[in-house]
Structures are given as structure tokens and as C-alpha cells.
Amino acid sequence: MSKEISNNYAPVLEKIRKGAGARELQRKLPVAEIKDLVALGFAGLRVPTEFGGAGASLESVVELLVEIATADSNIAQALRGHFAFVELLLEAPESEFRSHWLKEVASGKLVGNAESEKRGVYGDPHTFIDEVEGDNGTIFVLNGTKFYTTGTYFADYTWTTALLRSLNGEETLVSLPVDLSAPGVEVIDDWNGFGQKLTASGTTTFKDVEVDQRWIIPRTDTPTLVWSYLQLNLLTVLVGSAQAAVNEVVTRALSSTRNAWNPGVEHRSDPAATLAIGDAQSRVTVIRGALIDASRRVADAAAVATPEAFNEADAVVAALWPIVSEQALVVTSSVFDAVGASAVAQDHAIDRHWRNVRTVSSNNPVFLAKNAVGEYALNGTPVGTNIGKALQRPVALSS
After folding, report:
1. pLDDT digits (tens, 9 = 90+) for 266-298
2. 185-213, pLDDT tens digit by residue?
3. CATH number for the domain formed by residue range(s) 226-390
């Protein structure tokens, strides 16, 4: 991360960090905190300067997301949809869609995510865009309900997937950004997971929402790095959560008036504390370094823009997933050994880091990632193969 970006965001990140524990205990969504990041230009950080953005590198944004996650992991994950949307725009060829939306995000507009449905099938959604005859010509009307719509509560638009049903009877799987201020859009913070409580990963409902035909994009089989971008964001959440746990336990160790393990020495001189903290920080240092290296390799793949390069980048990111997940869980659990029972007091809320890591890790079970990496190494099977299948409509079973 450049020194300019680091210096620019440092005061806001410190403010976010100081309020994170209280927000957790009060279940207060970080609306103001996300607005502060947008005010600094986060939305357009990756957008090229010719479109009004800062033109920052992928590596710099990943490093910043780690810092945001260290301050409050909810916020880093809430920005996941926006992060991936911008990267997909950068990958896309020149078009009215690309230039319009790059300018929109550069102006400070955030884009959330609203693709998942409880059925779990992206390629056969129960969300529809119907082409209908209106009073002044043909219009397109969106209806449906999406779940796990992380970050949409804080955003201006949300990226969603639907089945377009044309007047001529054709059906096409499409994606589009939807204006969240449009009549008929409702976003509810009903996420009730035990971790990442403040990501607003709840429900978004579309009821007779008229959408702009210009921004309806058919889904294609064209290779992209979308899976890698989405996982890179979650990896920043895991690494940041682990670092935050270490930081908070260090603070507790330095401020505690009682040393449970070796009463004759201060915490800073207690081998039990230094060993637990040293082990935890070592693990975080390694997984953070691996994540930054992976971001460089994904950026290189995006520049090459071949299916082979994309497959290799996906495999690198997939290889990180089980290791980072496992190590972040170890850190957020074992670091408590540095100070003992006093660290588990509810008013410290240090347990949120383990809960957050466990929640984020559940997005992709580690055994699936390990298997995908092994399949790629042994058989050359692209990691994205199963993802591609998820984007296709299922074949009807014969009776």
C-alpha cells in the first residue's frame, strides 16, 4: 500500500477501530464509518484516473482492506460486492456500461451484492425481469427476493442476477445494477449469524421495480476472475480479524493489573504471554504475506487475460483459503492464552474475532478448496469449474 493511501486513511481507520467493540455490543451498524471511507475516495480507489478515480493497484486495495478488516472486519466484508463489481468493470472491454459505471463509482457511489437465493441456484433464479408493454412503450420490471445481500444496506446500487423473460418468450440469465432508491426496493438487516453481525447480510426484496434496459447484461461463459476477487475480499477479512485479535490481547496484557500465570513478573516479561502472542503474530505475518502475494498474481493474471492465466490465479487463491482459514481460527482462539480468563469478559468483546473468522470460513468449506487445488494440480481441472456449473440452469431430470 502506498504511503499516500496509508496516511490518508489512517485517522479514519483509528476512529473505526476505537468504536468497533461498542458497535458489536450495541449491534450498531457502521453506516457513518462506511460513509467516512467513501468520503476519502474508497469507492473509486481502483478506477483509472481518466474516469475520475485514483488508479490504485489491486495490491494496494487488498492491503487497505486488510487494514479496514483489522479495524472492523464487518466493514471490509460489507465492501465485498463493491470491490468485485469494480474489478469486473476493469476486466470488461470498452462499452457504454463500463464507462458509465466506472464514472459512477468514481463519484462515490457504492455497489452492494444481491445475487444469492435460499434455493442456492444462481443459474435458475426465482427472481425475474419481465418485459411488459407500458403506456409509453416497453418497460422492464424486476421482482424477487435475495438473501445474504452483504453490504447492500450501505450502498447506492446493488448487483443482482435475474431471469429476463422477453415478450417473444425467450428467457435469458442476466445481471444488472439496481438503484436502491427506486420504488419497490426494500433492504432489511435481518442477518442473525453469530459472527459478522454488522455486515447487514440480510434480505433485499424487489417488487415491481422498473429497471433501465441499458444496464441489463446477459450472463456469458466468458472467463473472468470474479471468484478470485470475491475470495480475496474474504481473505482480507480473515487476516484482519486475526491481526485484530492479537492487537487487542496485547492491549489487554499491557493494561492488566493481574498476571494469572506468573504473578511474580509483569505480563510484558511473562513467557506465557510472550509465547502466545509471538506464536499468534507469526502466523498472522505469514498469512498476510501470502495474501498480498496472491493479490499480485491475480493482478498479473488480469493483465494477461487468458483462460490459462485466470485458472492459475484461481488455483493460487483457492490454495490460500484452507490455510488462511485454519490459521486465523488458531490465532483467534489461542491468543487468549496470553492473558487468561480476564480476556473473555463480555465488555471486551474479543470473542467477536473468533466468531467472525468462523462465520467467514463457512462461506467456503476448507475441504472443498483443498479438493479443488488437488484436482487442478493432478488433472488440470480449473478451480472455477464448479463455480461455472453453479451459474448454469440445471438440466431437468428425466422422470
Report:
1. 767 788 888 999 999 999 999 999 999 999 999
2. 999 999 999 999 999 999 999 999 999 99
3. 1.20.140.10
CA neighbor of 160 nearest in space, from 170, 174, 140, 181: 174
Residue 295 contacts residue 58 (beta carbons within 8 Å): yes
Beta strands in the chain (DSSP E): 111-114, 128-134, 137-146, 157-165, 171-179, 185-188, 203-211, 217-218
- Decide the pairing of beta strands 137-146 and 203-211: antiparallel
Enumerate the β-bridge partners of residue 128: 143, 163
Return the CATH number of 3-110, one of 3.40.50.1220, 3.40.50.10490, 1.10.530.10, 1.10.540.10: 1.10.540.10
- Residue in the block written with cell 468520503: 39
Low-confidence ranges of the chain (pLDDT < 70): 120-123, 257-261, 267, 386-399
- Residues 80, 232: Cα–Cα separation, whole Å: 9
Under 8 Å between Cβ of 289 and 324: no
Integer Cα distance of 30 and 282 in angstroms: 30
> Would you say the pTM of this structure is higher than 0.90?
yes
Domain ranges of the chain: 3-110, 128-218, 226-390
How does pLDDT run across 3-13, given as a tens digit for each residue?
889 999 999 99
Q: What cell was used for 20?
A: 468497533
Cα Rg for the chain, rounded, in angstroms? Answer: 22
Contact predicate 310/225, CB 8 Å? yes
Considering the domain 128-218, what is its CATH architecture? Answer: Beta Barrel (2.40)
pLDDT value of position 120: 61
Other beta carbons less than 10 A from residue 30's beta carbon: 22
What DSSP string runs through 199-255?
S---EEEEEEEEE-GGG-EE------SHHHHHHHHHHHHHHHHHHHHHHHHHHHHHH
Provide the 8-state DSSP code for 391: T
